[in-house]
Write a structure and sequence with these properties.
single chain; 280 residues; alpha+beta; five-stranded antiparallel sheet; 11 helices
Length: 280
């Protein structure tokens, strides 16, 4: 099973209709209290909605999370928050390690509509690493552990105050389906003219339909897909920034660095340094 930007783009063209998986690794439906766990087994499961919130740190590998409105590709060093009762489907790449905290909805109100992702802070990493040391019974019976999980829940509003990132919207019409498949196959050299030819629409009609159906312009869609792929390459391979820039369609590493820093508030070099030093 592959988990990548290319696969995320392709899945945007398929209907989302999750059914509860017969076997779940991260359900926590019977837990009496919040708790956290380390998950190294490969995930491939779906739910119409779970009782608890999920705060997930991708330590290594990649995690694909799909919802009704679109999907996320979360790379190493990033967090995703999946609200309680939110339908989802998850897939992890081979070799992925996750720290998953199951949080009580009553402990803190969620600030966004639906899932959200962000870069993990050093504090978030440390708290999740500590959280997995307590068993569910210890959290249920221990005052200190229970207060710790309430604090963890409360900090999520601060950690996820950033703009939406690593997310691409689902498509509904046939022309937009063809646009996304074109983008999947031509990420490094995609253009408005090429997308219009693939969709059978004029440039102006394509721009209008992108905004109406996806809630973003063609330029924004292209940028998000390229930034997602750029993070994926930087996180998973020891590749020079200039090579990553060329692969995702930037003429120079300087142009890529500027776009990356504007989107993620750090340069590609800073991202690689933090990832390699495990300083998230």
């Amino acid at each position: 099973m592959s988990v990548s930007t290319r696969d995320r783009l392709e899945r945007l063209t398929r209907p989302f209709a999750p059914e509860a998986s017969a076997q779940r690794l991260i359900a926590a439906e019977d837990a009496a209290a919040p708790y956290a766990e380390t998950v190294k087994a490969q995930l491939c499961e779906a739910s119409p909605g779970d009782r608890m919130h999920k705060l997930i740190l991708v330590e290594t590998g990649q995690l694909d999370v799909e919802g009704a409105a679109g999907g996320w590709l979360i790379v190493a060093g990033h967090l995703i928050f999946v609200p309680a009762d939110r339908a989802f489907r998850m897939r992890s790449a081979p070799g992925t390690t996750l720290l998953v905290a199951h949080l009580e909805p009553a402990d803190a109100a969620w600030i966004h509509h639906g899932c959200w992702t962000t870069a993990a802070t050093p504090l978030a990493r440390e708290m999740l690493a500590r959280a997995v040391r307590w068993s569910p019974a210890q959290v249920a019976d221990g005052v200190t552990a229970r207060m710790f999980f309430r604090t963890l829940s409360g900090l999520c509003a601060e950690w996820f105050a950033n703009k939406r990132m690593l997310w691409l919207p689902v498509v509904q019409s046939e022309p937009m389906r063809r646009v996304v498949l074109y983008l999947r196959d031509h990420l490094g050299d995609a253009s408005l003219e090429g997308a219009a030819a693939a969709s059978g629409l004029s440039d102006r009609t394509l721009q209008r339909q992108c905004r109406a159906e996806l809630g973003m312009s063609w330029r924004d869609l292209l940028r998000e897909a390229r930034m997602m792929r750029g993070l994926e390459l930087l996180a998973g391979q020891r590749m020079p920034v200039s090579t990553v820039a060329r692969q995702i369609g930037f003429g120079t590493s300087a142009a890529f660095t500027t776009a990356f820093a504007r989107r993620f508030e750090m340069t590609p070099t800073e991202y690689v340094a933090r990832r390699c030093l495990a300083a998230w």
